[in-house]
Each structure stands twice: as structure tokens, then as C-alpha cells.
Amino acid sequence: MTVNLRLSLTIFSVGFAIEGVGSLYSFLTHTSELPGQGFLLYLSPVFTVVGLLFLFLGRREWGELHQRRVRHAHLTFLLVAAFFVLAVIPIGVYTYLVTGATPPYWVTIEFGAAVGAMFLFAYVTYFLIVVHLLGAAGKAAVMLALAWSMVVSIRVGLGVAGTFPTYLLAARTRVLSTSGLAGPIITELSLLFVAYFLYLFAFVDAHRRILRQGTPPGSAPPSPIPS
Questions:
Q1: What are the DSSP calls for 29-83, one per residue?
Q2: I need a labelling partner for 195 at 20 to 30 A (CA). Which of 59, 102, 116, 119 fits?
Q3: Nearest to 118 by CA among 148, 162, 88, 91
């Protein structure tokens, strides 16, 4: 049975579909805000955590390679959390410890690098989850998605580094909002619709292949029930 594995793939697919449509809307309309007052920023980690939970529960439902990839995906997501902490630290330090001080240039670089790495490793996590479950077309899709995510992540990192004073001012004045956080990089975030739809194609393809195969490649068929 592959119930948890298929449920995990379904959760990720729904998340990619919603985020892809939202990002495409932002791209086509050139809006200065993400749809739904920026709820997409919260949607991605929620779908990822829930999807990883069911992936963990179903880690033994496929082959040994799948179990190793699940472990790698969880470790990679821990890196995402670590980069998030690294991005928050300079904001916290210059908001609560050295208030009023102007951060040196290297702090803005660290902030941008941490945010960019956080985005990139999130998409590496998705890649590790699904690549071994795919055929040729699906693998091509996730490779293109990962490459595009890398380009966008670099642009996001550069964008937030250049507007670090804006984020710091918002933290110091307690004027924080999701749309305000996304505003300076809305153009970069809207470009992610390409990666979202490519990952959607790959995860749906993986779901279809698992349903068709039923058991892990190379596994022994079930023993007949004695009459």
C-alpha cells in the first residue's frame, strides 16, 4: 500500500497548483501585492510541512532509494529552517540589541544570502522528494524547475539585500505585514509560477506512475494466499 506516499504527493500537487496560479496572476497583472494579501507566503511552508509529515509516515511504502531520499529531503528542509534563522538574526539584532545603529554592508549581504539560500533549498527539497519516482519527462521537468528556482532565488537574495533597510525599518516600527514583506520582491516571486507548474507536472506524474506500478521497482511480488 502506498496511501501515505500518494497523499503526500497530492498535498504537494495542490500546493503547487494554488501557488502557481497565484504567482501567474501576479506576473500577468503586474500587481504590487501577492493575491490574498500575501497568504501565499504562508501557504508554501504549510503545504511543505504537512506533505513532509505524510512522506515520513509513508517512507517505507516504496523502495530503499525512496527511504534515503526521504531522509535527505527532511535534512534539506532543516537547512531551510536554519537559513530562515540566519535571515532573522540580523533583523533581531539591529531591532532589539543595537537599535538606531546602521548595519554594515556585510550584514545586508548575509541577510540576502540567507533568504536566497532559504528559497533555493526549499526547491531542492521538492526535487529530492520526487526525482526518483519519475520517468524521463518528469525528471526533465524537475531539473528545469530546479534550475529556474536557482535563478529566481538569486534574484530574491539580491532583491532583499538591496532593500534590507526597508525590512529593518518595518521591524523597528512594528509595521509588519505579509504584503509588505513580499512587496520589494514581488516581481521575483511572481516568476516562480514557472517552477510551480513544472513541479506540479512532476508530482502528478509521480502519483500516476505509483498508481500504475503499485509496488516499488524490483520488489518481489506478494506471495499467493494458500487455498
A1: HT-SS-HHHHTHHHHHHHHHHHHHHHHHHTTTSS-HHHHHHHHHHHHHHHHHHHH
A2: 59
A3: 88
pLDDT digit string, tens, across residues 35-59: 655 566 677 888 899 999 988 888 7
Nearest-angstrom CA–CA distance, 107 and 210:
46
Report the sign of the C-alpha dihedral through residues 84, 89, 90, 96, in that order.
Answer: positive
Q: How many residues does the chain have?
A: 227
The set of cell numbers assigned to 95 is 531591532
CA distance 217 to 184: 46
152 vs 122: CA distance, rounded Å: 12
What is the predicted pLDDT for the residue at 62? 76
CA quadruple 36, 39, 131, 157: dihedral sign: positive
**pLDDT tens profile 58-72:** 878 777 888 888 899
Neighbours of 148 (CB within 10 A): 19
Give the DSSP letter of residue 84.
H
The residues near 2 (Cβ < 8 Å, ≥ 6 apart) are 58, 61, 62, 210, 214
Name residue, grid cell 540589541.
Answer: 97
**CA distances in angstroms from 23 to 27, 45, 80, 123, listed in the order given:** 6, 16, 21, 16
Q: Which amino acid is at 61?
A: E
Q: Name the amino acid, one letter, at 193.
A: F
CB of 112 closer than 8 Å to CB of 119: no
Letter for the amino acid at 207?
A: H
Q: Count CA atoms within 13 Å of residue 205 on its CB side.
A: 19
Cβ atoms < 10 Å from Cβ of 163? 17
